[in-house]
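Aggregate trends can hide what the representation actually does to any particular protein. For completeness, the protein is quoted in full, as a sequence line and a line of structure tokens.
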Amino acid sequence: MPLSERDKAILDFERRWWTLPGPKEASIRCHLAMSATRYYRLLGGLVDSSEAMGYDPLVVRRLRRVRDHRRRVRFEGPSAGMPPVR
């Protein structure tokens, strides 16, 4: 199923949100007219979408890395993912 215009807008926003003034949550509401909770729920679904990967692979890969790191830390502890000390 192809990405909707809303899905593309979410990925576009995630690519550039830090260039916008103010807190991210306020920018989400202003630019996308949705709550931050709804935004993150939709974004989380897009991360696993092959269509999203085709549309913006850099953003999707970055989000997957962040998600995987957070999962690893949650299950293995704060030192998870850290390089071994020699």
DSSP finds five helices and no strands in the chain. The chain has a mean pLDDT of 90. Residues 5-76 form one domain. The first helix runs from residue 5 to 16.
